[in-house]
């Protein structure tokens, strides 16, 4: 079992890769292989032959098996029921989706809590008058608390540059998984109401991700 994530930053043309901000690679392995050996082999056999050297910068973060041993994997390590109607649950065909489902997951899973947090951040950006429209993308690596990337797209409606708004997000929103739960008070029995009619754009006092209470602080 192998899981890989790349965080790429593109040049102004939005087509050409400028550099790689982070590489996350988790690979299942035999019990008797050390983590040092795995990291060395992954760099030698996978990363170095595939990623152009000019994409790797001094501050590029490379995480190889960041949670440590990965002996048990596949359906033996992950089982259960999850993953239904992810597009209907969110924005229909209007916005991009990372692919992680909400149903069947508790708020410790960023598939759910970070999607809610991105909604919360985007709504506050619009309410603060920083943009008329806003899409927020956040990525994570298992075992790493800080997001590996935070990206804001105002679809050409921003009153500040997207880099400036992204920095405002970093300065004002703690998007580590544990804090997402605290920020939005997600350990409450509120999820039955999300089972139908979608998770977003609804007037429900329990849906804390619809609040715009931070907007006055980021104007």
Detailed description of the structure:
The chain has 219 residues and is an alpha+beta fold. The chain has two domains: 2-77, GMP Synthetase, Chain A, domain 3 (2-Layer Sandwich), CATH 3.30.300; 86-217, GMP Synthetase, Chain A, domain 3, CATH 3.30.300. The protein has six helices and five strands; from the N terminus they run E-E-H-E-H-H-H-E-E-H-H. The chain has helices spanning 35-50, 74-77, 86-89, 110-127, 162-172, 177-184, and strands at 2-10, 17-27, 56-64, 135-141, 144-153. The chain has a three-stranded mixed sheet with strand order 1-2-3, covered by helices on one side. The chain is globular, with a radius of gyration of 19 Å. The mean pLDDT is 91.
Can you give me a brief rundown of this structure?
This protein is an alpha+beta fold and 219 residues long. The protein is 28% helix and 21% strand.
Describe the SSE topology.
Blueprint (H helix, E strand, L loop, with lengths): L1 E9 L6 E11 L7 H16 L5 E9 L9 H4 L8 H4 L20 H18 L7 E7 L2 E10 L8 H11 L4 H8 L35
Helix pairs in contact: 4-6
Largest sheet: 3 strands, mixed
Q: What's the helix-strand series?
A: EEHEHHHEEHH
The residue-averaged pLDDT reads: 91
CATH domain fold name of the largest domain: GMP Synthetase, Chain A, domain 3
Q: Roughly how much helix do the residues carry, as a percent range?
A: 25-40%
Structural class: alpha+beta
Q: How far apart lie the N and C ends?
A: 46 Å
Radius of gyration, taken over Cα atoms and rounded to an integer in Å:
19 Å
Q: Which class of the largest domain in CATH terms?
A: Alpha Beta
Output the strand order for the largest sheet. Answer: 1-2-3
The total tally of domains equals 2
- Spans of at least 5 consecutive residues whose pLDDT stays below 50 are none
């Amino acid at each position: 079992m192998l899981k890989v994530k790349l965080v790429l930053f593109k040049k102004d043309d939005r087509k050409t890769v400028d550099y790689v901000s982070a590489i996350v690679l988790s690979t299942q392995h035999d019990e008797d292989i050390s983590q040092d050996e795995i990291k060395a082999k992954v760099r030698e056999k996978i990363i170095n032959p595939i990623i152009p050297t000019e994409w790797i910068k001094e501050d590029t973060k490379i995480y190889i098996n960041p949670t440590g041993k990965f002996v048990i994997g596949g359906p033996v390590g992950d089982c259960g029921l999850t993953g239904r109607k992810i597009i209907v649950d969110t924005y229909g065909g209007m916005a991009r989706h990372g692919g992680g489902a909400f149903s069947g997951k508790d708020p410790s899973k960023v598939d759910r809590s970070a999607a809610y947090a991105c909604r919360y951040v985007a709504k506050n950006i619009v309410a603060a008058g920083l943009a008329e429209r806003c899409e927020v993308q956040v990525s994570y690596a298992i075992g790493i608390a800080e997001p590996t990337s935070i990206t804001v797209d105002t679809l050409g409606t921003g009153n500040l540059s997207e880099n400036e708004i992204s920095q405002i997000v970093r300065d004002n929103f703690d998007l580590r998984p544990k804090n997402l739960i605290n920020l939005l008070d997600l350990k409450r029995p509120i999820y039955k109401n999300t089972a139908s009619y979608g998770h977003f754009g609804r007037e429900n006092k329990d849906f804390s991700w619809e609040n715009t209470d931070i907007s006055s602080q980021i104007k």
